[in-house]
Structures are given as C-alpha cells and as structure tokens.
Amino acid sequence: MGGPGADHRAGPLPGGPCERGERAGRQRRKGGQVSAGAGLEQLLGQVTPGRYETYESLLDALADSQVWMLLWNGQPGSPDAQYGNMEVGGYGYAPCVTSQQELAASGWDRAHEVVTGREIAAALFPERWGIWLNPHAPGGGVGVPWLDLRRVALGLGQLPAGPLRITEPNLDVAQFYALLSQNAHRTPAVRSLRRCWVQPALGAAYLAIGLDLYDTGRHAVESAQQMMRESVAAVPEGLPVSSVAMSDDFDPVAMWLRRNSRPFFDRDVPAAHAAQQAGPGQGYGYPRPY
Length: 290
Known about the structure:
Helix content is 29%, strand content 21%. The chain is an alpha+beta fold. The protein folds into 2 domains: 6-157, Trna Endonuclease, Chain: A, domain 1 (3-Layer(aba) Sandwich); 165-273, GMP Synthetase, Chain A, domain 3 (2-Layer Sandwich), CATH 3.30.300. Strands 1, 2, 3, 4, 5, 6 and 7 form a 7-stranded mixed beta sheet that branches. Strands 8, 9, 10, 11 and 12 form a 5-stranded mixed beta sheet that branches. Helix 2 runs antiparallel to helix 3 (52-64), helix 3 packs across helix 6 (146-154) and helix 7 packs antiparallel against helix 8.
C-alpha cells in the first residue's frame, strides 16, 4: 500500500471520529506500551509539557516509524478515502495509532492506512494539519502540530526546534546591517530585507535575515546567497546568523516577519520610510502550551 495520495490527504476533512481524543487532548499520555513500535511508544509515555529534548526524540523516532492512520471515509488508496480529524486549541489534527495493538485497543472499526511518519508528515504539513498519536490512550495521547510535521518531512537538523520565541533584535550590529544593505543594493534580485531574533526551544538563539527576492529562480537565489556570504564578514564573532526565504509560506520565521516587521532595506521604498515596527513574538505558529 502506498503513501497518502492527493485525494485522501487532510483538509478539508470530514468531522466525526475523535471526540474522545479531543476531550482528553489537553493532557499528555502517562504510560507507554511496548510493542512493534516500542521506541516511539516508549517516548510517548515520557513526553510532558516543557520536556523539549524528549519531544525532539519523539519526532526523530516518528520519522522512520509506522503509524496507522484512521480513515473516516473509504479504503486505503481509494479516491474517496479521507482521514479522520480532530481540533485542539484551534488547530487541526488527523488521529492515528502507533501499532496494531493500539489499533485494537482504540476500538476503531473503520478502515486504516499504514504509512511511515515521514510519509504522512510530507502529505499533511502543506495542508497545515498535524497528527495526534493514540488519542484513545489514557491522558489523551500526544499531538504533533503541522510545523513539527514539516520538520519531520524536511529533516529535524535543517529547521529550528519549536515552539520558537521570535522578537525584534536588540543587537549593536549597525556595521553588519549597513554592509548588508549596501550589498543588497548591488544585488538586483533582492527586493527587501527584514530581521528578527529567534530563540528555538532547543539550541542557540540566532539573528534571522528575511530575504524577499523578485523571483526565486536559481540565479536570483545564488546571488542572494553570495550577498549574505559577503556580508557576514561584518558580523561580530560568536553571533549566529541565518537567512530565511520570505516566499516560504510554511516557515514560521518568514510568517512572523511578514506579519510583525518592516524592511530595514527596501528597494521600492525610500529609506526614510523603511522604519522598524515591533510586534509580538511568543511561540508564533504553534499552539499555546496546555
């Protein structure tokens, strides 16, 4: 059986199967069950609010583990197949279980589809749906928001661990900003630049530069990358700097920048009007902690 196809990915999903998990979903599971998916299930039993290292291990295990996706309509691979859905804190999740034993324990009597965590992550995150692991279990199971599914699909090491705390930067790096603006002026592909300070749930905080390009073709991207390489020479030693594409509709840093900041370089606007505008930064793009 293949991975989820376009006809039975989430969104819009029919309502129905997950009232039990929805009511219990504000808690975390307290006990794990050892079975074929022992690694994933044991980690489920250890995840609690604030234990980001354990949660990161759970995401790592999820990528290569199998999950049993609960189908509300249709059969695996059929055109009318659709996953079940539940809503917690205003965010949508597709419920699933982590083993054949958990499937039996759930009492689910409709069809299901077995896929890897990485496969379902790649299928659901573009629709902004997460998954909820074992919603029938004591404590309600564990929800994985779509932004974390994005990290599972693209690689945990490639994207910062959320929830992210994003704020306006409070750094004395005027020389870097000046050099970057000069280089941007000489790089025709660059429309504007924005900035923010990002504190991941795990790892060091860093300065993020949002790159807004006139087009996203190879030449434009390479010229912007070269601009960044030439500019980081003015960054004080020990200050991490990263860049983010403003065209990425799924990147939480780019989303925050679009919503809460103004460019410090804007080719289309006179410099006098390219002022900074502060905005909120706590955990943007993630549900609030329970």
